[in-house]
Design brief:
alpha/beta; TIM Barrel; 4-stranded mixed sheet; 36% helix; globular
Length: 317
């Protein structure tokens, strides 16, 4: 569906157990060769492998001076005008292009939204949700959380909830810290505010739970290896090489999924993966994965709700 002809529709929230309307259980197209699919069920509905994609909505929250970009550093006493335009590409072109691509492949994603980006572009935030994607917390500002006091954290997370809820009509229940760096207080504050999961833990290739204030809190692992902001920066890879890396990652996880629960995480950023060539590579990967039997694409809130209801997910005290 092209966004110019998009008609707002209401999307149901996934049930605590099972995939609901947002998860796509894919079957191989006629004539397509698939891998060995002998497996016992580790996910609902006998799915074999879950893939979860993040779409970071950050454009508009970046600082006027000193924001990271492909441009050479500039003395912060000067406003960096071209860097601001590079970020603007994310809301003018990047997210709209990705939204159309998610529609083409029938996948729903989790959008981690910085509150200030939502304040500047509320219509786009609402469109993301109206098209069936999850709005997740990503802080209210561009400031890192690791240096905040507990009072600053709580105030910022509440402001993020209010901003996203006002713009989209939904409240976030998941959280992603600035570069994954929270504080020892972060999870307790999030739980107090009604969040049920975070993604700032890359120690497993499957969801798990941790104990926070004596209660379970879900972890839906994020990714560094399948993350555009890392892969196209330090050092920069090519679209073809990144596509091959995604396919190789998928192949190993899909094989492992025959004997254990496996999940693959991918991260896309508005101004980075939203360019034409990278949208093409993500779409090609998704279509390739969809040819394999038992591959499911899930939003992170769906995974978290299921993990909290399941009896056999790993638990860390």
């Amino acid at each position: 569906m092209n966004r110019r002809t998009f008609i707002t529709s209401t999307t149901a929230t996934a049930a605590a157990i099972g995939f609901g309307t947002n998860a796509i259980l894919t079957n191989p197209a006629p004539g397509n060769e698939t891998m060995n699919t002998t497996t016992q069920p580790f996910w609902p509905d006998k799915a074999r492998l879950v893939i979860s994609i993040s779409m970071q909505f950050e454009t508009g929250a970046q600082p006027e001076r000193g924001a990271s970009s492909p441009f050479p550093p500039l003395d912060p006493k000067y406003p960096d005008l071209p860097v601001q335009k590079w970020y603007e590409y994310g809301f003018k072109e990047g997210i709209p292009r990705m939204l159309d691509m998610w529609d083409r492949v029938g996948v729903k994603v989790t959008s981690h939204m910085v509150g200030q980006a939502v304040e500047r572009h509320p219509e786009l935030a609402k469109e993301i949700v109206d098209r069936g994607h999850e709005a997740s917390g990503h802080g209210q500002t561009w400031e890192p959380q690791y240096s905040m006091t507990p009072e600053q954290e709580r105030t910022g997370y509440q402001a993020s909830i209010d901003t996203i809820q006002q713009a989209t009509g939904t409240r976030p229940i998941g959280f992603n810290a600035f570069w994954l760096r929270g504080t020892p207080n972060t999870l307790g504050i999030l739980q107090d505010l009604g969040f049920i999961y975070h993604i700032d833990d890359i120690s497993r290739d499957e969801p798990f739970t941790v104990t926070v204030n004596g209660k379970p809190f879900a972890v839906v692992p994020y990714t560094i290896r399948n993350n555009d902001i890392v892969r196209f920066d330090s050092p920069a890879t090519t679209n073809a090489a990144y596509l091959q890396d995604l396919k190789d990652d998928f192949d190993v996880l899909y094989a492992e999924a025959g004997s254990r629960r496996r999940m693959m995480s991918i991260s896309t950023h508005d101004r980075i993966s939203g360019i034409p060539g990278r949208v093409k590579l993500v779409e090609e990967f998704v279509k390739s994965a969809q040819k394999q039997k038992g591959v499911v694409f899930m939003r992170k809130d769906e995974i978290a709700k299921w993990a909290l209801s399941a009896s056999d997910v790993p638990h860390e005290a």
